[in-house]
Amino acid sequence: MKMKMKERTKRRLLIACAVLFCLWLPFLGYINWAMHQSPETFGHVMARMPMPAYFLFPFETMWTRARKGTLKVGDSAPDFQVKTLDAKAPVQLASLWVNKPVVLVFGSYT
After folding, report:
1. Burial, 63: exposed, middle or buried (Cβ in 10 Å; 0-12, 13-18, 19+)?
2. How far, rounded to the nearest angstrom, does the alpha carbon of residue 81 sit from its chain's CA centroid?
3. Given CA atoms 53, 57, 58, 64 in this order, what sign does their dihedral have?
4. Which sign, positive or negative, has the C-alpha torsion 86, 91, 97, 101?
């Protein structure tokens, strides 16, 4: 009798693990998809992420791979357009380095 209960318990545990894995894998794919989208889309997804999820997924590894890029040290930065703080007119990176070098600093100063 005890043997049957142990086997049932093992089987139920195995089924529960399989179901959790089947739910975890597509969610992992969804997060990976979001990391390859625009920062706005990724921010929208991550804003609704429950805190325990951060412990269940390899976010740092996924983020590093998703945002790796192809630039090497010494390569020129690709041209892009950004909004100015006053939002009057966008600025093109190429227009800034016509006469002098440009240094790009990414970070938070708050």
Report:
1. middle
2. 22
3. negative
4. positive
